[in-house]
Design a protein that fits this description.
By secondary structure, the chain is α+β, with helices and mostly antiparallel strands. Helix content is about 15%, strand content about 30%. Strands 1-2-8-7-6-5 form a 6-stranded antiparallel sheet. Strands 3-4 form a two-stranded antiparallel ribbon. A hairpin with a 4-residue loop joins strand 6 and strand 7. It starts with a strand and ends in a 9-residue tail after the last helix. About 35% of the residues are buried.
Length: about 130
Amino acid sequence: MDTYYSWKDRTPAAVAVDACRGRQVLYEATQLVGCLPSELTPWIESAAAETLEDMPRGSNGLRIGLNREADLPGLGLVMRCQQNGDYSRTRRVLVAREWAEGSVDSCEGPIPQREWSCFWSSPTDVG
């Protein structure tokens, strides 16, 4: 597990859970860590529809980043992938509200470059 801190006030702002060795993260009984990305496609679509109601006006409940990884800003959840042998497995990055908007892309978000460069990312099928 990796913890990332806000550079402004040095408080924890994101936690990334390793797909191979990390603890399991559940959201309403759905396993989010170590799965095949395609196994979570129905859950991502459902969660995106549900978070639309909670999002600020003009925001999108589901964002797809440059690596084709899904971001659900309303939940503070970045749906990353991590190589595990011949397969990509789901690696969760949980972010604080102030990091949620731009956290899906390495070029615009506050998540440190280390997260984007250390973990191989594979395109996911989210729709």
